[in-house]
Protein 1
Amino acid sequence: MSAVSAKTEQIESAIQEREVIQIRGMHKWFGDFHVLKNIHLSVKNQERIVICGPSGSGKSTLIRCINRLEEHQKGEIIVDNIELTNDLKKIDLIRQEVGMVFQSFNLFPHLTVLENCTLGPIWVRQTPKKEAEEAAMLYLERVKIPEQAFKYPGQLSGGQQQRVAIARSLCMNPKIMLFDEPTSALDPEMIKEVLDVMVELANTGMTMLVVTHEMGFAKTVADRVIFMDEGEIIEQNNPHDFFDNAQHERTKLFLSQILAH
Amino acid sequence: MNSVQKETTTYPIGLHPDLPPPVSERGLLKWLRKSLFNTWYNSIATILGLYFLWLVIPPTYDWLLGSATWEASSNKDCRAGAGGACWGFIKARFLLFMYGFYDANSLWRPNLAGALLICFATPVLIPKVPGTRFFAISLIFFYPWLALSLLVGPIEFSFLKTSSDLAIWAILILGFIAIGFWGIKINDLVKRGFGFGLAYFASALIFLNWGLGLDSVETTKFGGLLLTLVLALTSIAASLPLSILLALGRRAESLPVVMYACITFIELFRAVPLITVLFMAQFMIPLFLPQGYSFDDVGMALIGMILFFSAYLAEVVRGGLQAISKGQFEAAASIGLNYYKSTRLIILPQALKIVIPGIVNTFIAITKDTSLVMIIGLFDILNITKSSITDAKWLGLEWEGYAFVGLLFWILCFSMSRYSQWLEKRLDTDRRI
């Protein structure tokens, strides 16, 4: 009995130790502007990472490089054992496994909520329509808006739209979820409903990289908090030490500014 | 508490919250007061306007219908009439106006082609009618060849004369189909499309060569409304897909050859007058064709118009593509849709919806510009009217002739405009509450 549980524990820890994202010596330039400088980052399976930093520090660009919405110029990015190169087929493969939630939701306004959710499974994963719709309804229930399935995005509030966007990504059954400031475009009372959904998602063991200024979320959910400034990773630590015992002056300054109010 | 209060409260006369607005604030009376007589100068304008209408409408009605002559065999009968319009002229020349010089005992052919078009297009244009998908596919892939065969009969090809030619082509088609199935088996989209595409076009050529076994009709016999509709509908149907490809090509920055080819094409054809394009199509395209091949004038005019208007439409479509935010491309990419799928499912549906007014505007322009073919000697509805009124038998009937042509064009274009407004409303999901 104990041998079996020890074995499963071993397997589980092996799964969790597996590195799903490896970034080594990565640089990116926008024209002459050096946005990301020598980034090293590896993310373990089921790890939850919060990335923060002042605006323009390159945090959004970093996670956008992971699903190749931005191209890096130097170094390597390996996602789920596939290296990101100019090979379009590999890029499409990686994008199928990496979901993304945007600051401005980016729902497809000409499709209903349900169609937004089933489009990927039907056209990318070749799931039969009925099956895709049933799965989409389950995810819409998880983000607590199944009753909006047949409405258009334009009829929903910002918080509802962002939850649909999360459901749309989840419908592809991704291994990794990227969140690019998911609550920055929302009214205060809507931020909570989106964060609640994200916390629940974290509890299911999803690997998550979240760019956000919601430090409460970082404290409760994150395994690791990364602070970026001027295109570099300045400091990374578990949330407890990160918030209470920051090492760098720049981190301290940032935290004092962001936690002041 | 509240409801009790409500019942016991008394209101001054005329101010109860549940009363309808006073008579002067609702219905026709309000509209009259607010729109026509709200100031003294607007009242004067209204009265002047009414006087103007009184001056114009009765005589117009009298000319159009009241004292019109409905039966006439020449302009003598018209002059003998009550002085109104002489619609007998249109009646006597009606077949000529409609079909040009098309063989009188074959008129069922264009009629059938038109009837089939209506049958096929109705479910496509109005999604409430069932069978949209089936009819859309038929309309795109089968109707063009069917209509062409109905209208002109068999078309001779130098490579399809003897039965041995036919046998070779049949084998070729089977070969293409085999490639197609092979493509399905190894899941190769290119081989699949290539195989079935070539098989389809080869079959279409054989079908055109057979031409439903009808008599051949020269396109020089096409005329009147028939020619106008053939030119307009074919140009519209062919230039829209071509323009979408051109617009996408022009934005394909990662494929510079394609991009510059599209830019050159668009800028070249858009900067030349249509009349020049028509002249050039008539005289220059034959120079590029190998000896023994020839297109007729209608074919040449069509090619010229399709190229010209696809360049025009491409810029309209590009306007729509520009309006789609970068976020839509990114969201589509983030769920794993590749370029073709995201263009087809996300970008084009939104971009085309935005530019429906611009597209229909160009469609209307295409319809009206078909009459420019008179310059290369074709007899569209306008040219045929023009020559009819110079006929000695019907001299002096310009008003009737041009009024008739004008009305026909107006009906065509106005119905397109109405359809597009209906379509815009139906597709407006962004702001649907």
Note: DSSP finds ten helices and ten strands in chain A.
Protein 2
Amino acid sequence: MYNRELYIPRIAKIKEIKTLTRDTKLFRVVFKNKGPELSLEHEFLPGQFVQVSVFGAGEVPISIASSPQDEGFLELSIRRVGYVSSHFHKLNVGNEIGIRGPYGNYFLKGHNGAKDFLFAGGGCGLAPLRSLIKYMLSDPRRFPRLTVLYGARTKDDILFRDELYALRESDTAEVNLSVDCGPADPGCEIGVVTTLFKKFKDLRDTLAFLCGPSLMMHFAIQELLNLRVKPEHIILSLERYMKCGVGKCGHCYLKDKYVCTDGPVFSYKDLKELGVEI
Amino acid sequence: MKIKEYTITKENLIALLKELTKSKVVIAPLRNEFDEVLLLPVKDVDKIVFDYRNTINNPKDYFLPQCEPLFSFLINGDSCEVRPLEGQEEFIIFGLRPCDTRALGLLDNFFKRKFEDSPYFRKRKSCLIFTLACREYFEDCFCNAAKSGPILEEGFDVQLIPIKDKFFIQIDPERLEAEKMLCYLDAAKEEDKKEVSDLRDKLLRYKSPFELNKVYQNLKNERVDPKVWQDIASRCQMCGLCLFICPTCSCFTVLDRIYPDDSRERVRQRDACYFLGFSRLAGGENPVKTNEEMVKRKYQHKLVQQIDEFGVSGCVGCGRCVSSCVGNVNWLQNIIKIAE
């Protein structure tokens, strides 16, 4: 764990800020006092999140958008949407923030057999998927076939646009993009998330990872089920309000679970058994 | 190891408490000018009250207060520095009721799950608790149904049971350091033990207002008439009072405070799952948005999830929420309805 005391964050410095869209920025951060016992390497797995502090404004849970193999830094994609994230957007390179974590479970656990992997992201839900996609791209033998489906509101809202376009060019993964409202770039569909699934006939052996707004996930799940993906192979990352990240504050309580410690990653099968409607 | 048993006369108990207040802060039931009994720091041991139903406040005040700092921090230009809290002094709570003692036991388990909550355990590990068992049931409370009293079998540090002209004392074998602190103890005689077991038997004969397992089953299998939820939601004012005064409710929010002298702290403050914004995401989406859903979540959490996770009911039957509800929601009557 990056922090030693449960609620006391470790100080990190902002090294780089990239504007992704009109409301989303990517922050690259490094820890300030690096001790040998607190190395960054492989400290988290894709799907986990950190509690990020803007001192004076508060703390919010943010998924890690970089890959565990990116040594020495973390990348956090932050959409300006609430009080703390708005303050976050005012920060500059060199400013210091606090980080606790990593917390929560992760995307990959015991799916060794699969060869086909599909990612369906909506809006800023691409951030945790990016961590997983980057991680999987580095090991093509284990993860040979990757398909990325991503939908945004408009073409100006597409996150990591350069990376997605480069990935599509590179042929290492299939990338399908859509925007809810046009205009769209060539090769990008116009329509809601379901349009991205039109070209598939059968995905029965595919492992699918989803993250996005609940409505988007709802429809994506229906599509996946129609394409014969098994409910236990539909893996979702849920977003919930959290104040602590460690299963104490109670805000993310969902049926019998705490999303921060039992999740944020659940299979569709798990959620159905819990009685959670998605 | 077996629970150690002694007796003490009231006179000696007062003398003992006087001894303890010399070196430690003692918190005990005290009566205020409005004839209300509260758990407060003791200045004069002779003022400690023994004839009370239960205190208005509950022990949570001393372990998860309404608002408490988690750390302080400094911002100096670009850089930030965090400062952990100072140490915690040892203290004693005297006269906690069995239901509240059980509630603390539940909080202990809750704050231990997955990660140990350091601010809670700093205080918890510095505290010795004297439980004062009840000799009767009071209006609105139902510890017999919640299995948390009126006399505890286990889960206490030191339990005092009032018997004829003295107190029967039980000490948890894991808190034997308490034994060293206690002076003036007499050996428990057979007749004292018999008096305690007779009292226990007498109290056990009272009819329990509901059967906990039935409540659990009906909630777990969603066999509750939807009218129950509609009825509760219609009268509940969503003020969160029942949650703030509940000895087992532990939800909190976290915020940064900047004080007039420019000192800064991150604090945690009690929160209530009956507040509309409790689950709302920054983007405005709210997974739990109706009063009915919020009400259901509370019943399900206390009477199913906590039983599943900790093996004990999340409601200890102290009855505080029953007697203080402004919407007359009556948690107890609702549980009885759920058990039907």
Note: The CA atoms of residues 49 and 63 of chain A lie 4 Å apart.
